[in-house]
Amino acid sequence: MTAIDPVIIMKQEVGKAAANLVQSNSVVGLGTGSTTAYAIEYLGARLQSGEISNIVGVPTSFQAQVLARKYGIPLTTLDVIVKMDIAIDGADEVDPQKNLIKGGGAAHTQEKIVDSLADIFVVVVDGNKLVDKLGSTFLLPVEVLPMAMTPVMLKLEALGGKPSLRMGVKKAGPVVTDQGNLVIDVKFDSIDDPADLERTINNMPGVLENGLFVGVADLILVGEIIDGKPVVREIR
Ligand SMILES: O=C(CO)[C@H](O)[C@H](O)COP(=O)(O)O
């Protein structure tokens, strides 16, 4: 028998813990990524079993939409509801102030809209995502209109970043977002002031959104393996 990858076990456990926070009669933001996929699966299971009722989801991507349909979670849009009770989403890096880098799945623009409208934004990560300083392990994703790619790259370089266009896997050419735009991944040697960098990049003409989420997360659920057993730690 092959052993299950411990990272998958941690993702499943945090996904389950986040799904268990959802109460009946809630509007739920449904994030994107492999960890959130487990939360959507468990939330669907709770709904289908009758453990909770009257849940409606707001998806942050095409992926979240497909998963919600698969697991029987009804969906709505931001034209119909004003805010969410809770949003569950993953992250690529989490710093000690609960600031995040997101966008590993190129979905950070819709994710920031949905996650920031929730009363409680719960982030689901495995322990490998915790960093002392944002940008230390992950490149910062920036969604741009295709015609603005070159001027935005030059401006990012002038800020001290090393930008590269995100390329597709099993597809020739660049990654195209759910909105039909491109993603520039930027290496910064050090992100000393995430709030300032978030504002500065979003002020560049042609930038839709960048992956810095500053002051948005309320609760981080961290999946860890301690003494061979999966545990979920809360950071508030
Ligand atoms: O921001 C995201 C997508 O844009 C994801 O939430 C982030 O990349 C984490 O994904 P995973 O849980 O697969 O590691």
TrEMBL record:
Catalytic activity: aldehydo-D-ribose 5-phosphate = D-ribulose 5-phosphate
Pfam family, one: Rib_5-P_isom_A
MF term (GO), any: ribose-5-phosphate isomerase activity
Residues involved in substrate binding: 32-35, 89-92, 102-105, 129
GO cellular component: cytosol
Positions of the catalytic residues: 111 (proton acceptor)
Annotated GO biological process: D-ribose metabolic process; pentose-phosphate shunt, non-oxidative branch
InterPro entries to which the protein is assigned, alphabetical: NagB/RpiA_transferase-like (IPR037171), Ribose5P_isomerase_typA_subgr (IPR020672), Ribose5P_isomerase_type_A (IPR004788)
Keyword set, alphabetical order: Isomerase
HAMAP family assigned: Rib_5P_isom_A
Similarity section: Belongs to the ribose 5-phosphate isomerase family.
Subunit structure: Homodimer.
Name of the protein in its database record: Ribose-5-phosphate isomerase A
Source organism per UniProt: Microcystis aeruginosa NIES-44
